[in-house]
Amino acid sequence: MARVNENFLKLKAGYLFPEIAKRTLEFRRLNPDADIIRLGIGDVTEPLPRSIVSAFKKAVKEMKKKKTFHGYGPEQGYDFLVEKIIENDYRARGVELDKDEIFVSDGSKCDTGNIQELFSVDNVVALEDPVYPVYVDSNVMAGRTGNALSDGRYEGIVYLPCTSENSFNPDLPKENVDIIYLCSPNNPTGATLDRTALTKWVDYARKHESIILFDAAYEAYITDKNLPHSIYEIEGAKEVAIEFRSFSKNAGFTGTRCAFTVVPKNVNANTSNGKKVFLNGLWNRRHCTKFNGVSYPVQRAAEAAYSDEGKQQIRSLIELYLGNARMIREGLASVGFEVYGGVNAPYIWVKLPSGMDSWRFFDKLLNEANVVGTPGAGFGPAGEGYFRLSAFGESKRIELALKRIKEKLKL
Ligand code: MLT
Question: Model-level pTM?
């Protein structure tokens, strides 16, 4: 008799974004003429940059000819892409990495969800709250937590509240934790960890032999020159941190799929009898077993993101989205909302009027202004009382959304 993994039954609700899509669809069914503006899921809206499309097309043409056809590639990614990553994302910032420390993949969502497989189920996990739901749900599925509690937390997880009181920068845990998820620039709050904050975490991890899982999918949105783009800019991080990067939010690859994970060769964890095991080898073993690499044309397209033309076109995309973020921040502030984020990140984190439940605000915004956003509670209990708006959208539509919020939303 086949039995299910009962850990899945502990999950509180469906995954956040399909749940939002379901509610939006139902609203559309009841209001077929409504002109809905979607600022919910962080999905890019601008097309791929021209230089990337040319590289993509050229690589597809190569696949047409016997002489230039590519079958299975290296699971870890082609050298032509890995070398560009090392040179541009790391060496340019004073970080040296070897080629076999980079693992090209089809997305940071998958990688941040899968990485926990390397760790024993009795590890104690610490998470920022609010947080990208993948980190929580993948640990629930693995059996690293107990049941969901009435306040929305899971037993066994150490939650690190991020609120306006601590400027959305979590304090160190009081207890010992083994695995720490950090995301900067942060999804959903848009906050960033500066050098002092990151150094504090790296020092904690070194002292407690913990591993930091550092999600840097939004690093391209950093405008403040003093902020680190990679955790490896912090001394000692190459011993304790795994970093996740993506081409989704900078080069517009949400539908094209390409990302990479960095597992430095010195990062290690212990067996139950205290023997050190290096995680680079384990991740490589997992990657080769469960993944057959990103397609050749997609990797050629990602490589083009590092050409001079590609870099310039990506910069323009980011400036466009950050311009939208500024518009949202200023528009909401002008009608009295307290707003955070949106300066080094494409997300604006809005404090709701006191006592306003974030799912109730979701329904209100959809019904009164026909605008979709993301309820803060969907990112964790400390997200209750907040709401996330995404800057991915057409500027004119965002302008219209703000006009409707000003004119139609009854608070
Ligand atoms: C979000 O809206 O939080 C993003 O779409 C997350 C993701 O990239 O999966």
Answer: 0.96
